[in-house]
Specification:
A four-stranded antiparallel β-sheet has the order 1-28-27-26, with no helix packed on it. A four-stranded antiparallel β-sheet has the order 2-3-4-5, with no helix packed on it. It has helices spanning 2-5, 347-364, and strands spanning 21-25, 33-38, 44-49, 55-61, 64-67, 76-82, 88-93, 99-103, 109-112, 116-120, 126-131, 137-143, 146-151, 159-164, 170-175, 181-186, 192-195, 203-208, 214-219, 225-231, 234-237, 242-251, 257-263, 269-275, 278-281, 292-300, 306-312, 315-323. By secondary structure, the protein is mainly beta.
Length: 366
């Protein structure tokens, strides 16, 4: 199997003779772009920067790029989630209040929800953040089109849900009265569980698999962040690729995790795949002669496909990794693949913007 054949040292993978993954650019040609989520069929959503500096959401499927429609009055759009049928979730910016939005699989807006839609499942249910009349952010989920607030699970005045699986369990982060952030899950019955981290003050849940595994990142005692997986109440830190911090943004039913890590020294970041206790630098799995530099991974499906952001010949591009035919037999996820679209949150546009919105809103209402 993949985990048994590959070297146990991530840096040894630089010598891997046959690329484990095939890599392709999937963003609109000529624009800087980033992929933020992937579903079970390999369809991807992301965002690209237009010539005027504004951002536009896109859908990539079957080799075609479709810009997601811009609602009237919107200045920018971002996509941060994708459902099994290719519906996209995200939000728009009109220069005033953000609006959470869901598009159909040909890019047309079909529903609004809260201020930010950050997760979608195959049933069309959404997870995200709404802004209350008090100016605070509230995590929410929609089920069968009905929006339900998850309140303030940690007792503070901000919360956001970043993912929802097909069973209806959501994962997110909430502020405590102390100002620290706590990861949480919320089941379809409304039961909420706070997730203990790795000994530091803050923890963040950003993704949930179909079988309830949760991924995100947590502070350790010295304040550094570590990519984290929760199996029930048990938190496991995934380490780094030599740098200070690491961040997890996607998890599949096999327990594989994708994200990115700081590298040692001034080398920046690398996208990673965590599998069976080993953190692999994805740049070591695409062939030593590749023109790509993979910076961050934000989406991962049960086929083992990975989506994210990298540099291709020096230009920032959305990428899709697909297991190579030559190595498919040793890849961790066995045939038949478990077909379930798992929404994976991603990037500043999903986590960073709602967190930034919290501080902006808080300053306005204090």
């Amino acid at each position: 199997m993949f985990r048994g054949i590959l070297a146990c040292n991530a840096f040894a993978l630089l010598a891997w003779a046959v690329p484990v993954f095939q890599v392709q650019a999937i963003g609109p040609a000529g624009f800087n772009s980033s992929a933020t989520a992937i579903n079970g069929t390999g369809a991807v959503v992301g965002n690209y920067r237009q010539a005027d500096g504004t951002y536009r959401a896109f859908l990539w499927q079957d080799g075609q790029v479709t810009p997601l429609a811009m609602p009237a009055g919107a200045i920018q759009t971002w996509a941060s989630a994708i459902g099994g049928a290719g519906q996209a979730g995200g939000y728009t910016d009109s220069g005033q209040t953000p609006q959470g939005l869901i598009w159909d699989n040909i890019g047309n807006p079909i529903a609004t929800a809260g201020a930010y839609v950050m997760g979608l499942n195959d049933n069309g249910d959404a997870a995200g953040m709404a802004i209350g009349v008090d100016g605070s952010g509230y995590a929410f989920v929609t089920r069968n089109g009905v929006m339900t607030s998850l309140g303030q699970p940690a007792g503070g005045d901000w919360s956001g849900a970043y993912a929802i699986n097909n069973a209806g369990t959501a994962a997110g982060s909430a502020m405590a009265p102390s100002g620290s952030f706590k990861a949480f899950t919320s089941g379809p019955d409304g039961a909420i569980a706070l997730l203990a981290g790795l000994g530091g003050a803050n923890s963040y849940a950003t993704a949930i698999s179909g079988n309830g595994l949760v991924a995100g990142h947590s502070q350790i005692a010295n304040g550094a962040l570590r990519a984290t997986v929760w199996n029930g109440a048990t938190a496991t830190g995934l380490g780094t690729l030599g740098g200070v911090n690491s961040y997890a943004y996607a998890i599949n039913a096999a327990g594989q995790v994708a994200g990115y890590s700081d590298l040692a020294g001034p080398s920046g970041t690398s996208a990673f795949l965590y599998d069976n206790g080993v953190l692999y630098d994805l740049n070591g799995l695409i062939g030593s002669d590749s023109a790509w530099r993979l910076l961050a991974a934000y989406g991962l499906n049960n086929r083992g496909q990975i989506a994210g952001r990298g540099l291709f010949n020096g230009q920032e591009q959305a990428f899709l990794l697909t297991p190579s035919p030559e190595t498919k037999a040793v890849f961790l996820v066995p045939e038949p693949f478990f077909e379930e679209g798992i929404p994976e949150p991603a990037t500043f546009w999903l986590v960073g913007a709602p967190v930034l919105a919290y501080f902006v809103l808080r300053s306005r209402h204090r």
